[in-house]
Each structure stands twice: as structure tokens, then as C-alpha cells.
Amino acid sequence: MTTQKHSFQAEVSQLLHLVTHSLYSNPEIFLRELISNAADAADKLRFEALNDNALYEGDGDLRIRVSFDEAAKTITIDDNGIGMSEQEAIDNLGTIAKSGTRDFVSRLTGDQKADAQLIGQFGVGFYSGFIVAETIAVESRRAGMPASEGVRWVSNGTGEFEVSTIDKPQRGTRITLHLRDDADDFLNGWKLKSIINKYSDHISLPVQMEQEEWKEAEEEGQPGGMVKTGEWETVNQASALWTRSKKDITEEQYIEFYKNLSHDFEAPLAWSHNRVEGSTEYTQLLYLPAKAPFDLFNRDKKPGLKLYVKRVFIMNEADALLPSYLRFVSGVVDSADLPLNVSREILQESRDVRAIREGNTRRILGLLEDLASKQRTDAQSQEGKIDIGTGDSTPAPEPVESDSITDVVDKNATPAADAAATFADEATQYARFYAEFGAVLKEGLGEDFTNRERIAKLLRFASTRSDTLSVSFADYQSRMKESQKAIYYITADSLSAAKGSPQLELFRQKGIEVLFLTDRVDEWAISHLDEFNGTPLQSIAKGAVDLGDLQDEEERKAAEEAAETFKPVLERLKQALADKAEDVCVTTRLVDSPACLVVKDGQISNQLARLLKQAGQPVPDTKPVLEVNPAHPLVQKLQASEAFDDLAQIIFDQAVLADGGLPADPAAYVKRVNALLA
Ligand SMILES: Nc1ncnc2c1ncn2[C@@H]1O[C@H](COP(=O)(O)OP(=O)(O)OP(=O)(O)O)[C@@H](O)[C@H]1O
């Protein structure tokens, strides 16, 4: 028998180091991860066997067997699923295939605590075996391959693994963990059984252990002990969790199922479990995670939805079942109508899939509305009130078509701690969700025309009234001045940049609230929303500000007069700045600053132009409008100044700086300012 040595991919070594050094806090999860892999392997076999029944090799009773050997100090997990060929074992167990995961691992800091937290975001799968094992041996044979083409893979988790060819008559994978000395306590039937019950109860496959019974000692005076009978018994419920009735499922079981599904170490924030009947029949069990995965902003990231058809696993990451802006959702959809041989291509076109996708979307939006309605607003927490919604507590619309939803359970995963803690938790759940996933949800404004209003109601912003992401459009509307005609907002790179925008001055003076849109996606997203509940949305850095009746007649007149007397200066400014500014005009929005930049209605903001430029995207070649404040001393100085042109350039460049940009020629700007200061 020849044995080949292979090195782990560098990132795997890094991950393994972390697993063996940092993941001690909850060592028993290794069993969940390995059983979950075995169940996936069974799912894959069932799927492939749909087209080739011979793959069952006469043994269609799929099961997972967990055994232990006290003398040899081993635990074995044996499945008769799809198995692995030699090359698959080398690839799957020696490298990290997903490039997103690879990037993630290469970002690990070496700080064990921080890394262990991070690692919870994607789970370590197979490698979690090394939490308890000093050596792992994997023996596998792929379904359909001859017995002589089995593979044995062995590693002690440091740098290298060995691979050899073996005879393996039985299809599937057998993983033997040679336990470290400090993991001896897992060599106990009762303990293993209770871990399986805790973590793997709902796996649709039977998980079996060898029966044990009490035997008195043969010699008198000696203690008796548990002995194995040679019979296998199923120790889990072995029925897919989502097919059970909600009343038979505990909160812990829902949470454990989620952890199995997503490999997340944290409990989900909330979930929704429904059987949908009507023209399209399916069961949906959808979870909202508590933490964003590391690759959330990768637009190619697929939602963690598994598709089953009549309980047969069909595919992971079924992206046709959810719109991209809900890609953070994970869970299971089990359809009663789709054909078993459904492919990704067919999925894109199926009417049933469209109905499921719409049903999933409605359900998630409903769940979010529910969380949002429990969210304490700033005002409420100050007043000590808790139970009022934030204006978005309109009940979720009933599902359209002839679908009726029965057996519904929507659940917020609140720890079963004391009532006060649970209550506080509920009141902050939506804020927690929004901090993690708000930026993704916003993409829905541009993607999902049908649900645009529901999504808009779920958005939260900071504003001139609140530094936290807590102001909904409805909150804003409820505080609008009587004659105010628009919802005002400003886009900026950050909260501090937004707060410092000169364009806010007039609004501050008049006590008009302005929303701060500081996510990269905001400007694009908001461009798909012209109005909210009949009130138009207006950027205060675009077009003319027309505060309508909020500006009194006198102010308007004074501005017009100032513009008139200021005309000659404006003309000179226009000339001096001809290559930089589209136009120069007298402002209606500044109070304390000399000047600011605005763009014309319909043009992209300077901030978005900068973002696009940074991303190497083409940017429309437009120039901003410079608005000047004739009441400002610096601007008044212009008229008589001998250095008119320099001063004009400085005023323009300062407006660029206040807008979050950089002067086109920073050195020239510094020179001019220094000349003035000298
Ligand atoms: N019992 C098994 N039978 C067949 N293949 C397996 C088994 N266990 C692991 N594998 C293969 O090894 C791969 C790596 O497993 P691992 O648990 O590390 O990651 P994963 O399951 O792909 O990802 P994640 O755990 O993040 O979902 C699996 O994708 C699968 O192809």
C-alpha cells in the first residue's frame, strides 16, 4: 500500500491552528458538525440516485452510526452516503474551495479571542473534529466506485495529511477520531447520546448508536458495567424538523436546527415556520441570523436556503427562492409540487418557484415588520414607554393568490431568560437586525418594485434629531412642520460628514429635520423612491431649495435683493471658476458658511461620483454648482479684493472640502491660503 503525503493549503493550516487552540469553549459541537456532514452526504446520494438507482448498491437504508471504543480512545462516525473518491478527499479535506472563505481566513488576526468570535460566522465543519481529536482518520468510498477504490486520509491537524488507497466494500464515509487525553469524557454512551439529542435530533436521517445494557460483574464483589449488545438503535427523532407540527418543536430545537443548517455558532434572531397551502404547496422555515456573514456584501452571495422536494434534498443555496436583497436569510423550503429532477435553470422559470419566492419574501418582510413594531424608538425609551410601534406596524398584508397559510409560527429567538431580559431583548431586536443587514435590505428598493413601500417602511436613518439608525420615514413624517412639503435628506460618507454639511445650516435654523443617508448604497437605493406616503423625498444638496411657506416673504425678498446687488461679483466668479463650476449663484441654504456645492436635480451627488471613481467606474463628466452666501465676510471681501481670482479658488476649494472631497490641486490650494495668511 502506498501512502502519499500532502500539505494542507496555508489557510487550512491557519484554520486548524485556530480550531485546536481557541474553540474549547464548546467542544461538543464537533459531533453536530460531523453528523451534519454525514447527513449532507446522504442527501447528495439520494439526489444523485434519482437518476441512477444503482448508486444505492442494494442498500437504500441511509443512516449515520456513532460508536466509541474506550480502550482505543476513539469515536467513529460512519455514514453510507455519497462518499468521496481519493481526489475528492484530497480536495475537500485539504483545501478551502470557497474563495470568500479563503479571504476570510487570511484576515484572521492571531488574536485568539477575536478570531474565535469571527470563526463563529462561518463554522469550521469537518475541521471541528480537531477540537477533541489528536488524529483523525477518514475512510471513504464513493457510491458507484469499485470496493478497491476506497481512500484512507489521516492527519494530526498540523500542516500535513496522508492519503492511501484502501479496500472499502461498504459505500460512504467513516471518520475515526483518536481523542486527546483531555477529551476522554466523550467516551461515554450516555454523554454521546445526549449530545446527539441536543444537536442532531431533527436530522431527517436516523442516527444510530450501539445498544448498551447493564451487566453485573461475573465475579462477586466486583462492580458491574454497561456492555454493548451488538444491536443498533436509533437515538434521534429522525424526522425532518420542518415537517413536524410547530407544537412539537421546542425553541431549542428550532435554534439547534438553524445552527446545523447555517454552521452559525450564534442563535438566530428570529424565524418563521409555515405550511403554505393553495395553488402552490410548500413548507417554509426561514431564519434571520443575528450576525452578518463575512461575505454579505458580495452580491454573488447566495441565500442559505436549502430546497427539498417532498423531503428529498435537491440543492443548497437555492437563490431562485429569495430575492438577492434578502440573501442573509437561511432556512429550508420543501415543495410538494416541483419535479424531483428540477435544475437551477428550471427553477428560474418555474411558476411554482415564483410563487414560493413571493411567499418567502412576504413572510420575511412580515417578520421584520413584526420585529420593527416591537422596537423601542428613541422617543419611547426617553419616556419609558415601550410597546408602541414606530409607524410601521401595519399588519402584513394577507398572502395574495389563493394561498392560505396554516400552521404558522413566527418566532423571535429570545433567550428563555427572565421576562424583563426577554422584553428588553425584543425591544432592541430590530435595531440589531438593522445594524447588521439594513444596508442589504435597502437594495430591495431598487430590486423589488412590488414590495417597495413595505421595504421603505422598514428603513431607519440617523437624522438631525438622532445619531442612531432609528428614524423611520413615518417618524419623520409625524414630526414634519405644518407647511413642510418634502422629506429632506443628505447623503454623505459618514455621520460626522453629514452632520457637518453646510447645506444643513438653513434647515437647522428653521428646525427642520434632515435625514442622514450614510451607507454607500443609499443614494442608489433612494433614487428608486420618489416619495413616501405621498410626501416627496428631496436631497438638500441637489437642485434649488424651496422651503415654500417655511421661508417667509421677507427672507425671500432680502435674498432676491442680495442676488441683484451681487450680480457683478457673481459674473466675475463665474469667469474665474469657469472650468470648475457649472454655475455660480446666490445661496438660499447657507447661514454660517461662505459657500457650498450643489448638483442639479437628477444628477449624481459628488459623494457618489467619488465612490464610483474610487471603484474605477465611469463617472459622468458634470460640474457642480457653487452657491455663495453674500452675507458672509469672506464673500463680502471678494468685491474689493486685489486677489479676487485666488480668493475665488479658495472659496471653491473649501466648498469641495466641506463636501467631503479634495481640491483638484491640493498644493495650489495650500499655497493660496498661505499667501493670504502671511
Ligand atoms: N461524511 C462525508 N461524506 C462525504 N463528503 C464529506 C463528508 N464530510 C465532509 N465531506 C466533504 O468535505 C467537504 C468539506 O467539509 P466541511 O465540513 O469542512 O465544509 P462544508 O460542509 O463544505 O462547509 P460548511 O461546513 O461551512 O458548510 C464537504 O463539502 C464534503 O464535500
From TrEMBL:
InterPro entries: HATPase_C_sf, HATPase_dom, HSP90_C, Hsp90_fam, Hsp90_N, Ribosomal_Su5_D2-typ_SF. Pfam families: HATPase_c_3, HSP90. Residues 375-403 are annotated as: Disordered. Residues 26-183 form the Histidine kinase/HSP90-like ATPase domain. Keywords: ATP-binding, Chaperone, Cytoplasm, Nucleotide-binding, Stress response. It is found in: Cytoplasm. SUPFAM superfamilies: ATPase domain of HSP90 chaperone/DNA topoisomerase II/histidine kinase, HSP90 C-terminal domain, Ribosomal protein S5 domain 2-like. CDD domains: HATPase_Hsp90-like (cd16927). One of its GO terms (molecular function) is ATP-dependent protein folding chaperone. ATP binds at residues 33, 37, 79, 84, 92, 98-100, 121-126, 173, 344. Residues 1-344 are annotated as: A. Transmembrane segments: none annotated. Residues 611-678 are annotated as: C. One of its GO terms (cellular component) is cytoplasm. It comes from the Bacteria. The keyword ATP-binding applies. Homodimer. Belongs to the heat shock protein 90 family. HAMAP family: HSP90. Molecular chaperone. Has ATPase activity. This is Chaperone protein HtpG.
